[in-house]
Amino acid sequence: MSVAFRRESDEEHLEPTFEIPLPPGPNWVTQRGLRLTREKVEALEAAETADMTEDEAKKLKRELRYWRTRLATAELRPVPDGEAVAFGTRVAYRLNGQAKTIYIVGDDEADPNDGRISFSSPLARVMMDAEAGEQLDFGGTENSVEILSISPIEEA
Q1: DSSP character for 5?
Q2: How far is CA 152 from the centre of its chain?
Q3: Distance CA 139, CA 134 (A)
Q4: Residues 6+ apart with CB under 8 A from 83
Q5: pLDDT tens digit sequence for 90-120
Q6: Please, what's the b/e burial string for 48-62 (b: 16 or more CB within 10 A of its CB; e: otherwise)?
């Protein structure tokens, strides 16, 4: 029989399921980030799978593997002194004339809508080791970022 008339199984056309990609580099976390990661693992472990479809259960297990890996590789960073921009600092800055404040945190804790950016983001990388009063080049523009103040993130 010609291959053109062979019935292919439905399985052959399914998209492969890959693991959730891990961000490159170290898995630095703040105290808050470590707590949030633990809570995520606990919530996923406590999820009731009895009423889930097979696909939903697979998705849950995949997400649980991701968060367990992130918890196992988490590196709790010491609280910085606030003298210079570093992981775990709150930074007030001016960009293009607008004053803003960000918190420099780990990849999994980052939430730009909440002002939390990853230490691996372009803006955070430009700011690292800068001190209050310094002006930095960013986005191809000279002296576009001015560091106004720096303090350690203080969260319970």
Answers
A1: G
A2: 19
A3: 16
A4: 131, 150
A5: 999 999 889 999 999 999 999 999 999 999 9
A6: eeeeeeeeeeeeeee
**Quick one: tokens of 146?**
């001015």
Domain count, the chain: 1
Q: How far is CA 65 from the centre of its chain?
A: 16
pTM: 0.82
Q: Which domain holds residue 125?
A: 89-152
- Cα→Cα distances 141→23, 99, 104, 112, 118, Å: 28, 17, 22, 22, 22
The tokens 């633990």 sit on which residue?
A: 38
Q: Can you give the CATH number for the domain in which 145 is found?
A: 3.10.50.30
Judged by DSSP in three states, 13 sits in helix
Within-domain flag for 142 = yes
Whole-angstrom Cα distance, residue 79 to residue 30? Answer: 8
CB 30 within 8 A of CB 155: yes
Question: What is the per-residue pLDDT across 33-70, written as a single tens digit (0 to 9) for each?
Answer: 999 999 999 999 998 888 888 888 889 999 999 999 99
> Alpha helix locations (H) across the chain?
31-46, 54-73, 122-127
Asked if residue 131 lies in contact with residue 149, where contact means CB atoms within 8 angstroms, the answer is: no
